[in-house]
Amino acid sequence: MDCLVCHDTTGTYKKAPPGAGMPAKDVDLKFVAQNVGHSSRASCGSCHFNGGGGDAIKHADLSRQLLTPDRNCDVHMGGYDFSCAECHKTRNHKIAGRSSSVPASEGAVSCRDCHSDTPHYCGSLLDHHLNKHCKTIDCNTCHSPVYAKCKPTKTWWDWSKAGDKKRKPKKDKYGQPDYHWKKGEFKWKESPKPTYAWYDGYMERVLMGQKVDIHAPVINLTDPVGSIKDPSSKITPFKIMKGVQAVDAENDYFLIPHLFPRNKEDKTAYWKNLDWEKAFTDGMQAVNLDYSGTFKWVETWMYWRLEHEVMPANMALSCVQCHESLKEEKTCNRCHQDNRDVDFKAIAQKGTDFSFMMSKGRDVSHLKDTTDYIDFKALGYEGDPIIHGGRFKKLPMGYGDKMPRE
Amino acid sequence: MIRKIMVWAGVVMLGACLCSAEVWKAPDQEKAKERAKELVPFVDAVKDDCKVLRRVCLLDKGIDIKDVETTYFHLESPIIKAREDHYGPVRFAHKRHAALIGDCTACHHYRPKDESMSETTRCSACHQEAFKADNPQRLGLKAAFHQQCMACHKQEAKGPVNCTGCHLKNVPDHKELVKLPDDADPFQVTAECRRCHDAQAEDMLTTAHWLWKGPSPFTVKHRKDIQHGKGTTALNNY
């Protein structure tokens, strides 16, 4: 058991290659042990920022940027210096958190634990409406309007293209490589808009050895459960990690390749021998599953819930960024007659300023001046709920001649 | 002599390095920490008005949440630290509490007798060192914080009431506590940690971070399973 990897405060502790197992030989273990303390973003991040084999690869919203984050990247960690465990409360070394990527969980963490079900608390007309939105929309939908905004994350990983040692990796506009002979072809994205889906906190998940429809155009390894008709489901942002990987063409389940060579004599590891057949035979043997001997490449998607990278409140999405109808002449005054103390137009339009984010070097020019941000129709609405009604309430309120006719 | 000069040169260079390296700071937290360090003059005399009247008086004056200047406090004070320092500071969402309670007098229960001072003066203006010789009946800052927070949390059955609900426990300096040879190997380190923290080590052995599997209450069709995880059945595409 390695106490130091989580309780190091010196920043000098590291594991021997490949970054797992025993500590590196040159670490002064006595020095680290004499300076132990609480876990930190650095200690948690030493594993979790590197998920997928490197910084920012699999987690959309976790990267080494969070060691010293900009306030605009993550207001909790960058503005208020939160450590991971302040939210991911720990009891008897069991750490709360509801991972979407892996099944194991030792408790849930929610924004609501601190911010309550009515987080907009100043009592204004706008707060009233925002709090009503909380019954339908997850906090991150408005408050983390783009992900991987401080560091590009990998969004496409095609294992089928691996093995070409001659292919020269090209750098994309973020300076990230599009290829590695060990791993295949990649795509990266910085500050993309999330994919939105109804989510009630539960995931459908494909597990090892589980039969899947290998002829489906896409197989979802993780898939959020939820419905527009379910009051406990909320519109929730996700990064979808897309890729191509292998299934057993006869057994109809996913194949586990043996990648990292065990030693110099290793004859089956893909990263040494570049032979998928051998890698699958060995890998499946290791997990006690039959390998038929024929494999097939399939496209897979993994939904990754976005929870971090919460922006400062004034950078949340504005009403008009989703509700196209508020771009028109009538805004709040469709229903509210009294505008003595409020500038309706200003309320409906204040919010995320993508031009500000652009000025900070973020790749968001395509999002400027857009509306219908979360795509109401894709979520099952007829259109903008202001015009067509919400998911439960169909009360026609001051629609005037915009009201849909039967 | 040359050696001495070299040592000094080294010290100067190290100093220069430390100064020039830009130290990252979280701006909101930093501001709150600076505020927490402030010591303000002691308010000896308070206006002893009835709390019911005081509440109405503030409402009549129109003092409410819009007047809250500081959203966030870092509850810590040199006054408290001077006496003991076992627990870390507390994050306090001031404006959120103000909005939730809707009554400034719930905490700002008295005002300074001096009318020129603020209606809602800070806690540490009236509550400072405990058992002050000339004001022994006045609660000290630590007691004031604890009585105010915990009593309200209990009454409202909302919010933490135990120590670690609000505070992180300070980790004692382990320099003297940890006894290891200079060339300690990883197994000696773990054994040394377990010399005092054996129960914690036993806990660790039951966790997902050790077992790489655990309960999967949020995975449909597997909600009662306990064997899934990266070490067993989890799949991914990266």
UniProtKB/TrEMBL annotation, chain A:
<protein>
    <submittedName>
        <fullName>Octaheme c-type cytochrome, tetrathionate reductase family</fullName>
    </submittedName>
</protein>
<dbReference type="Pfam" id="PF11783">
    <property type="entry name" value="Cytochrome_cB"/>
</dbReference>
<dbReference type="InterPro" id="IPR036280">
    <property type="entry name" value="Multihaem_cyt_sf"/>
</dbReference>
<dbReference type="InterPro" id="IPR024673">
    <property type="entry name" value="Octahem_Cyt_c"/>
</dbReference>
UniProtKB/TrEMBL annotation, chain B:
<dbReference type="InterPro" id="IPR036280">
    <property type="entry name" value="Multihaem_cyt_sf"/>
</dbReference>
<feature type="binding site" description="axial binding residue">
    <location>
        <position position="104"/>
    </location>
    <ligand>
        <name>heme c</name>
    </ligand>
</feature>
<feature type="binding site" description="axial binding residue">
    <location>
        <position position="126"/>
    </location>
    <ligand>
        <name>heme c</name>
    </ligand>
</feature>
<feature type="binding site" description="axial binding residue">
    <location>
        <position position="109"/>
    </location>
    <ligand>
        <name>heme c</name>
    </ligand>
</feature>
<keyword id="KW-0813">Transport</keyword>
<keyword id="KW-0408">Iron</keyword>
<feature type="binding site" description="axial binding residue">
    <location>
        <position position="97"/>
    </location>
    <ligand>
        <name>heme c</name>
    </ligand>
</feature>
<feature type="signal peptide">
    <location>
        <begin position="1"/>
        <end position="25"/>
    </location>
</feature>
<feature type="binding site" description="axial binding residue">
    <location>
        <position position="152"/>
    </location>
    <ligand>
        <name>heme c</name>
    </ligand>
</feature>
<feature type="binding site" description="axial binding residue">
    <location>
        <position position="94"/>
    </location>
    <ligand>
        <name>heme c</name>
    </ligand>
</feature>
<feature type="binding site" description="axial binding residue">
    <location>
        <position position="127"/>
    </location>
    <ligand>
        <name>heme c</name>
    </ligand>
</feature>
<feature type="binding site" description="axial binding residue">
    <location>
        <position position="153"/>
    </location>
    <ligand>
        <name>heme c</name>
    </ligand>
</feature>
<feature type="binding site" description="axial binding residue">
    <location>
        <position position="167"/>
    </location>
    <ligand>
        <name>heme c</name>
    </ligand>
</feature>
<keyword id="KW-0249">Electron transport</keyword>
<feature type="domain" description="Class III cytochrome C">
    <location>
        <begin position="85"/>
        <end position="167"/>
    </location>
</feature>
<dbReference type="GO" id="GO:0009055">
    <property type="term" value="F:electron transfer activity"/>
</dbReference>
<keyword id="KW-0732">Signal</keyword>
<dbReference type="GO" id="GO:0020037">
    <property type="term" value="F:heme binding"/>
</dbReference>
<feature type="binding site" description="axial binding residue">
    <location>
        <position position="163"/>
    </location>
    <ligand>
        <name>heme c</name>
    </ligand>
</feature>
<feature type="binding site" description="axial binding residue">
    <location>
        <position position="149"/>
    </location>
    <ligand>
        <name>heme c</name>
    </ligand>
</feature>
<dbReference type="GO" id="GO:0046872">
    <property type="term" value="F:metal ion binding"/>
</dbReference>
<keyword id="KW-0349">Heme</keyword>
